[in-house]
């Protein structure tokens, strides 16, 4: 269908091709080259510092909690750690598919949860993600003709570094070899002593004047005490005479008071007796009572006659009322017996009892009752009689009540009158009035006596008061005098006491002042650092607005030069005659530089080395190119400035990419030539040649839109696939060509030739592509590295399939109209020979199969005998050399040795430029933990036309430096991919007991060193650090007022000899100001043992405590670090594989030797070196291969609609593997991970030949051809397309297999395996597959006719 459309509408196909070309060109220009695909390493490092802590303390306090917390993270794979002195390093390995940005947030949350439990001295943890981008992409040297080291350093810092940091994609620029100047402030003890002497002299003069004033005050107090004693004696004599006069007056007053009291007692007795008899409480009450009684008696006697007359009248009134009551009683009796009223009452009661009327006389019967009117009249008459009776009875009752009330009132009055008469008679009889009058007269006499006594008492009281007043006056006078004398005495005593205190204070102050004049303990490095920091200060404080203008308020100003720093006032002693103490009075202030400590040379000349790191999201080549342009700009802007590239990943990337593109081009040209050789016709060759660039460009478009970059892996995929790109087109054009030679028209041949093989080429393409689909199940570095290759091969083959079924028939229908049959005498001769050979194989099937199996076994054994490898090392134009000096080497020793090494490297053939810097540069070198004074990083740039590989030159460098007293290691490639797989043989001994681990590690190292092929054995036990261990006795220390923390802080302060206080800006340069204490620079261990603490007690007094009194000081050895993995301690024992030995073979020998290795209890041994990495990657690829084989088989089942035919084709895979192993063996290559990629590809490629062959055999048999005849005829007919596709693929990979171009070594094993497998398997397929087909296909072919597939109506 597609072929018909393409032939019918060729211009549509043409338009699609043009669109693909345009998109391809745009995509290619937008894509940036890189060395490798973007590798997301699933690693993070948690760094925590714990100053002053030993490795064991770091492990317990920091590392273990961090490990336990991190172990609960999602997607965590492995947790390992290193606990060293002062620092904890926890390495986290996550699953490959983890998002490192989000996992970093989770890590920070976990750390925040445990950070609060740590001591304040433990720093906040730092999280770092490990990425290959941390390595510098460019290392370059800088030098200038007209600049010295100081000038070039300043120029680099002020101009070069800022310019480079502004380049897009540059993350950081590190410089090595810079001359760094600083201002030193060195405190000198002799200068401090001079200040002490001047201060003590001034203080002594001031104290002499104060002492004279104290002596004068003492004399005045003595005079005052003598005067006070004289005045006290006079006062005491006068006071005795005054006391005698007062005593006589008191005696006279006392006698008068006694006589008065006796008279008062007699009068009071008489008064009491009278009151008792009369029953009164007081005289006044008695007088008032008697007077009242007398008045009442006289009033009663004056009314006697009237009272008696009233009594008689009352008795007559009562008698009259009694008569009236009798009359009322009689009236009621008459009323009751009155006949008419009695009859009316009785009749009324009778009618009420009958229910005729109610109590009020109302009728209760209905009106229609017979005799109602008579009854009503009778009832009315009765009611009138009853009402009259009731009215009269009520009147009589009311009159009776009124009379009764009047009688009761008269009876009451009569009783009162009778009582009054009785009382009058009694008074007359007893003479009561006379008695009361006599009593009242006695009272008056009593009152007069009491008045006289009161007057006498007043006189006595007045005299007594006068005496008391005089006594008080005398007492006051005495008190005032005594008070004045006492006050005078107190003042004298206070003055004397104050004088004594002042004298004591003076003596104490004199001693203290002289002690305080010693500023040695005050003028410390810390104190001076704090003053410098505080004084060299300038900061904005805020804003103030006035008249609409906003003013910035800035406080302070920076120090401007060293002279101002020298004159800085430290303190004012406030002592007369003593000027303020300045910095220059106690310290030497001067500038210095690090010229003695730096080392950076280029070809033996001094210079500065720059290390440039890129940001992760930018392409290496782009950033390196931008940096190169910036170098050129800087060189043009400053005459005599030179930049020398020591390492440039960008150039290397371009070299590798250009090499791969060249191989791709060469492969395409060779493929086209071989097609021309087979077809002997330019027109079909042109058609197939067009399919190569179009397929490649189509693949580039797909790469761009799927995010695949132009890197060595993806381009190698295109280079590997270039030979296969023509396979589909070759099969199609060969079939069209064949049909055309049979006489079919160009259009018929184009359509039919494409349709006939469309299924086969689709199936073969799917089988090739399907081998890469299982990569989704692969994990680790293998997946990240080879996903790009899988995608590019898939894209290119898919594009070639589309081109084969669209463009090829469209072009063939127009270009093959005039076709002449070509003769192929040599090929026809070969076909006849093949026909005889395959017939012989069909007759001798067992021999053929045994030969194939024998070759497979031989090839595997032979190839594996060369060992295994992770990835091959690549040649480079740069060599990295590392120089390590013995421990304890000085800077000058390192410089001299580096000069010698540089000289020897320059003498090696092929080396053009050598650059070196001490300690290295960049982030990775700063994390190495090594001492910069004992190591030098050297970069060697090789000549472009070198004839020797970089690995061999690296070997020559190591040989040239072998006799030197240092370790020189050269890497033949700065892009050595084998580093991704580890290095050498490594084993981990795990356990918890450190002593047992060290013992096992030493034994394992000795055994490892005895194995052939192992060199540079390391037992993993870094030289222990000598330690002066101070063990504080907590009880003794606390009794002296010292804690362990205080002891630590005091010692740490004493051992701190220098610190950076501030920065001084002078002449546009910033100089750190370093404060040093000269007295602390030469402190020894003996000084520590005899150290004295100054402790302030609870009472504020200070005392000195010797360290040896509260602690023991021991010499000990401390472990440099403790390694842990999966929360278990381990020691790593490692060894490098010697030149000429293979890591796989040596590793197998090591594992064999260590099978019976005895370990201490609690310890275990695990291999974890390069071989383990290889085996893991191999296992992943074998898993990928098995899944791919299953996919291939299932695709062929769908193609052939048979389970047997695919099974026959699958036998081509071991044939291909035989050729691949033979290729590795014959070229001397190991079985590497890269080579395994070639085997995976082979599985998908080689079955294509079998598919084409078996498919045609089946077609012939369906047409009725005999089985063996069909087998032979199919082999003869399909030999040309089989050979053409195989040879084009082989030649397409030939340049890569030879290793043409820089970086070709990386993919060389893939090409070798593919070429060897295709070469051997293609030839064997033409013989072994027919034999297998003949063995397994014994039945006749099942043919389903089209008419049998017609659906019946009923």
UniProtKB/TrEMBL annotation:
Residues 200-273, 478-512 form a coiled coil. GO terms for cellular component: plasma membrane. One of its GO terms (molecular function) is xenobiotic transmembrane transporter activity. Keywords: Coiled coil, Membrane, Transmembrane, Transmembrane helix. It comes from the Bacteria. The chain crosses the membrane at residues 652-679, 686-706, 712-737, 749-773, 793-816, 846-864, 1181-1200, 1207-1227, 1233-1258, 1279-1298, 1310-1333. It holds the Pfam family ACR_tran. The keyword Membrane applies. This is Efflux RND transporter permease subunit.
